[in-house]
Amino acid sequence: MQRTRDNSGTVVVDGETYEWEIRRQPRPVADGKWEGIAISLRLQGYPREAIVQFPMPMHPSGRPEMEKQRIDLDAVTTAVTSIIEAGWEPTSRGRAMVFDVDAQGR
User: Which of 10, 11, 52, 64 has the fewest CB atoms within 10 Å, i.e. is most exposed?
Assistant: First the structure.
């Protein structure tokens, strides 16, 4: 598992280079719930984005993990494959699509 504290970077999936960037750090929402980190993905050279939302990491006690999140590059790579299977076409035009994935990017 390769983790980074960088705010942006690239991953290679099936010979294609995808650029990722942190879109949102975890934040609280209504009723004591939390939204996890969100990243934007884009195929290098194309404008179409996908926003991938990961769940908020929690301590075993049920409290949210408040420290700054590190990006798991393996999860980002898995997320690219998952969202393409879910219907994202990175070479097409249009609005950004939003996808919720689990902590492993599936």
Answer: 10
Number of folded domains in the chain? 1
Q: Would 77 be classed as within a structural domain?
A: yes
Q: What pairs with residue 12 in β-bridges? A: 17
pTM of the model: 0.87
The whole-angstrom separation of Cα 62 and Cα 23 is 25
The answer, yes or no, to whether residue 9 has pLDDT greater than 90, is: yes
Q: Does 105 fall in a domain? A: no
Bridge-based pairing of strands 71-72 and 38-43 is unpaired
Measured distance CA(75)–CA(85) in Å, rounded: 15
Task: For 17-38, write each residue's pLDDT tens digit.
Answer: 999 999 998 888 888 788 889 9
Instruction: Give the sign of the dihedral formed by CA 34, CA 56, CA 47, CA 97.
Output: negative
Q: Give the SS3 label for residue 31.
A: helix
- 46, 34, 30: which is closest to 96 by C-alpha? 46
